[in-house]
């Protein structure tokens, strides 16, 4: 068993798996159950000012399912905690006292006036919580009131509020970012400038998850009407991974710790986030789908993975893939790969053929000598990986690099030289001298 | 218990047991099960399952339509190729047709349940919409006679009616449906499904059924040729192969097809007599059907004896497993040698063991005798050509069945044939439907070109 102990901006937890600020962390009852099942920490559901908000008493969630009803994406219109502040603070204090080895961070969202933040930070400090997370992400409801994503979409506001918080508390300040922006680096830089100890991302994505096509109303429908909500779950993971990487490789924020959030369902997802720069991860939808016990697989899966790779600390994973994230223009245009179909494992569904034939490069046969047979035509294959993506059999189609000879598609000899778009003859902006990828 | 009654007796089981034994053998999928199963289909290119289907139903498309919650569209995809898609979903030996070809059979030994999905879609359409999705074209004024209201005849009649021709079906029995009504094992099509489907098919209009009219007895082929613009023969096989033994006409020996027909028509299964000890001779679907149903009616010992090896049996592996699970004993490599009789009835049957010598079946001289209250003959059915001899010209046969070309044209001008009576391949419901549809399209082309 590898040592999974995590130290994220000074907040210690026995493993890097935290529950994100969300319905699962709204009460002591839920949080205690999570700790019993092994979660390393929680971010308590966002506290606001009294009187508390009210939630709808109708449906708050909508989902996208696979046909076997696996939940792929979840959307919600729930607001921040609707319980009185004092009750939440009392429970936070009790839970932290009873579970000292677990991380307990408190999410906050109050109006953009300094006294509100100063006031609530003082109250949170009294609970002995480990830190605070500033909720600049909620895209629904609260944003209409000038909070949540309404703050997160204006870098100046992020910087301002972050600075206030750093002035008024000794606790670590994590700034939770909204993905509902054009370039995630700007809000991350703003948080950094404001003195944030870390950013966490992503919050949910603005969305309408579906439409009731008989009653013509968005889902979830509350008395005939629907409102946009926040989208999360496995479907958003690729968006979150990219935003994590963008911050991790941005020269201005590369040293800013990141708490990765967005569709994390398995230990493997967690490793991917950490490899792209996340110091730890937060989970919500997976717990809301399956219950807290999934963390046990996350713990053992991560441990096995670390043992296999000889990692003795989770920090050894963090950022390990960041150096391999680059801009398109630096990709090696001399790299040539061709798809290869393993005829022994091919089940002859023909999906590689029809995908290539109808929508790509006509590079896969459907017949050979009058028999159903699927084989790559190297002279047409551009190595696009679509066939690999649509093949239902794992590892049946693989991409094999050509390292010598002539590419039968282009007639050009295979070169082992690295050459990218910046110097390509077709690039009107090509630079005279060969440009290598910028050094780290 | 009455099941221990010796000899032939009815009422061997309790009403609950009869009901349980003749329930739907493949319970239908519910909505959730159908959607989950449909999701397993890979929507293959040029899908092998379609090629394996005699009626060439676009299986990936109809399954995708189930997956997208479009079951009516799915049923239309099925029925446009096979108007008896509901029955075929119940009785097709899918394990040797579409499901054997399914790429998931190759991938993991678990094909998509195509038959059950087809049933789901067709059930939704028949139960929820009721009316069929096809309409008659404007009347062409052409008249076509169809002989036999079985799967081939119904499929031909429906397609001809779609094209606007007026169809009269002549059928020897009281009810339409052919083997769907009189031949299929009861647990494969319960709840009178065969008649519901007949009504569904005929509801297109333009089809008249003349019941109780057998060709060669009540109508002649030459009269039909004179009175109609075209004739389709789909009357099936009226003859039953004999064992070729002495005393074959005694009590205690019966045709399996007749017994199955009686069973299918019985309103109360407890009135149907069945032997305590039953021996079935044969290795095809009919043999399995009579063996399993005898067992389910309360027969104590049922033994099915087939003259060749297991691999040569006409019944599918699934059907053989079903019989053995039900307690039917299957013996291979033995041929009937003589009937044991006592007081004018059969009390047993003697077999001689066989072996195959280069494909030729030879007796080994080793014999055994099985006691039997009933011996069922299930060694195939034959065309009775005499029924067709109403015309001056003689219709050409091929291996004892009506010779047809690719379009199901016989050697007589204006006469088409399909289903079991025609020499077209396997004797399956789905193959008969394919014949009927192919013949109807050919007839339509022929009649259209005459008009032009």
TrEMBL record, chain A:
Source taxonomy: Bacteria, Pseudomonadati, Pseudomonadota, Alphaproteobacteria, Hyphomicrobiales
CDD domains given in the database record: DHPD_FMN
UniProt-listed PANTHER family: DIHYDROPYRIMIDINE DEHYDROGENASE [NADP(+)]
Subunit structure: Heterotetramer of 2 PreA and 2 PreT subunits.
Enzyme class: oxidoreductase
A GO molecular-function descriptor: dihydropyrimidine dehydrogenase (NAD+) activity
Family: Belongs to the dihydropyrimidine dehydrogenase family.
Gene that encodes it: preA
Known function: Involved in pyrimidine base degradation. Catalyzes physiologically the reduction of uracil to 5,6-dihydrouracil (DHU) by using NADH as a specific cosubstrate. It also catalyzes the reverse reaction and the reduction of thymine to 5,6-dihydrothymine (DHT).
Organism: Kaistia terrae
Reaction catalysed by this enzyme: 5,6-dihydrouracil + NAD(+) = uracil + NADH + H(+); 5,6-dihydrothymine + NAD(+) = thymine + NADH + H(+)
Record keywords, A-Z: Iron, Iron-sulfur, Metal-binding, Oxidoreductase
Domain of life: Bacteria
Residue stretches making up the 4Fe-4S ferredoxin-type domain: 337-366, 372-402
EC number: 1.3.1.1
Protein name per UniProt: dihydrouracil dehydrogenase (NAD(+))
From TrEMBL, chain B:
Coiled coil feature spans: none
All residue ranges annotated as the 4Fe-4S ferredoxin-type domain in the record: 32-62
Cross-referenced InterPro entries: 4Fe4S_Fe-S-bd, DPD_II, FAD/NAD-bd_sf, FAD/NAD-binding_dom, Helical_ferredxn
Matches recorded under Pfam families: Fer4_20, Pyr_redox_2
PANTHER family on file: GLUTAMATE SYNTHASE [NADPH] SMALL CHAIN, GLUTAMATE SYNTHASE [NADPH] SMALL CHAIN-RELATED
Stated name of the protein: NAD(P)-dependent oxidoreductase
Provenance organism: Kaistia terrae
